[in-house]
Amino acid sequence: MSNKKNILVVCHFFPPFNTIATYRALHWVKYWLKDGHKVTVITTKKYGFEGPLDIKHIEHDNLDIYEVDYLPKFISKKIKSKSDLKTSTVPTKKNKFFNMLRGVFGGFADYTLLSVPYLVRKLKQIDKDGGFDFIISSYGPSSVHIAVSIWLRKNNIKWIADYRDLWSQNHLPERPKLTRFIEKRTEQYVLKNASALTTISEGLKQNLEQLVDFRKHVSVVQNGFDPDEFNNLVTGKKVEELEPGKLNIVYAGMIYPGRRDPTPLFDVIKKYNLSDKVVVHFFGSKMNGIESSANELLQNGAVKIHGYRERGYILNVLRQSDTLLFLESGDDDAKGVLTGKIFEYIASNTPILALGVRKGFESASLIEMTGTGLVSENDEMKILEYLNEPSLFYNPNKELINTLNRRSQALEIINLASS
After folding, report:
1. I want to staple 204 with a disulfide (CB 3.0 to 4.6 A). Which of 197, 199, 290, 373 is the partner?
2. Tell me, what DSSP letter sits at residue 208?
3. 315 domain-assigned
4. Where's the Glycosyltransferase subfamily 4-like N-terminal domain (predicted)?
5. pTM of the model
């Protein structure tokens, strides 16, 4: 019997959507194809308002991709086909409105729930050919798990429900207890049809084991980095934004005021008059709250907001900067959070300064075990010491770092599906 698998993937985050969430499923698909497996992907159509749409689809003889268009025609016609890559430092009225809805209704206010019947319909269509060894859906959003659960009521295929983030137990969106309770009960019902669950960390694994029957297997398959991306970087490509003669600190991602907050770093720069020695660069399109917290530093050039850049350029930015800024909440509900970004930071061969996160948290432990930076716990003197000489805090464990790659994790999924 052949050990090659016929794999069905259902996900929202997939090319051309360029966001860190896309790369988990994308890199798995890439390495499954390299290993000779057959892959079918069902994903939602991407719209310009969601973000940058500039990642190319993989082309391979063993890959079929189906995009499901789910927004009503009168809405989709009004949506720009190209994304708006302008940097947002202050929430727009539209964002505030949707944030308010999410604050009340949680995941039930997610527009992607409209895709559920269309995803189910597509699953039924391609099931005519059959022959899938297993199906994997990647949360978020919840629509992909819901659609697969509905479809599996009349099918008997092994389903791995993957979690990049938590659903009802997610630490970032604030919502009422009643909303959390309803989300929890909905999630428990949806997962009844799952054969196994995977998630990114031990902390999130514990959350999921409390959510579902303990007899349902929950495995940790971490996020990681794709070594091909870093090996193929054009390292001679100059990063124009970085300033010679200064300590260039780079943050690439999104800002969540009060949860992923760079203010402790700003305070040290101002208190010790480091504005002529340090520049903190922010790359990304969602920088809400930066203008108010860094007003003085923006004026004197110690903080600069550059907006969106394409992925290859950003990877060069990470590698050529002097320090990378990692932000995460220090609240207990963030203890098991391991974003995809931290693995790219670790792979970049650049020291990391971590703010917010506390020792014992999985992201903090990962930085310490890999020897790639300082977990400051927002300690003023530690931050100051780090800024004076980041290299003193950088002693990379290359053997461990090399294990944090997407190929290994893609193989973990295959092994889990075969067990």
Report:
1. 199
2. H
3. yes
4. 111-228
5. 0.86
Helix/strand/coil for 362: helix
What does the alpha-carbon distance between residue 149 and residue 255 come to, in Å, rounded to a whole number? 33
SS3 content of the chain, % helix, strand, coil (to 5): 40, 20, 40
| CATH, residue 318 | 3.40.50.2000
Per-residue pLDDT at 394: 97
Query: Which phi and psi angles does 142 have, rounded to 5°?
Result: -70, -20
Give alpha helix (H) positions in 245-379.
Answer: 263-271, 290-293, 295-300, 311-320, 340-347, 362-370
Q: Can you read off the two tokens belonging to residue 327?
A: 């932000």
Strand order, beta sheet including 352-355: 303-307, 278-283, 247-252, 323-327, 352-355, 373-375
Rounded CA separation 149/192 (Å): 8
Report yes or no on 1 lying in a domain.
no
Is 274 in contact with 349 (CB distance < 8 Å)? Answer: no
**Predicted local confidence at residue 170, as pLDDT:** 77
How many structural domains compose the chain?
Answer: 2
- Over residues 318-369, the pLDDT tens digits come to 999 999 999 999 988 889 888 889 999 999 999 999 999 999 999 999 999 9
pLDDT value at residue 115: 94
User: Residue 113 sits in which domain range?
Assistant: 6-224+405-418
C-beta of residue 275 within 8 angstroms of C-beta of residue 300: yes
Residues 11 and 51 in one domain: yes
Helices marked H in 177-226 — which ranges? Answer: 177-190, 202-211
Specify whether the CB–CB gap between 268 and 355 falls below 8 A. no
Kindly state whether residues 257 and 387 are assigned to the same domain. Answer: yes
The dihedral formed by the CA atoms of 370, 317, 54 and 411, expressed in degrees to the nearest 10? -20
Checking DSSP bridges between strand 158-163 and strand 352-355, what pairing results, if any?
A: unpaired
Question: Which residue, among 323, 238, 239, 241, has the nearest Cα to 274 in the 3D structure?
Answer: 323
Q: How confident is the model at residue 388 (pLDDT cuts 50, 70, 90)?
A: very high
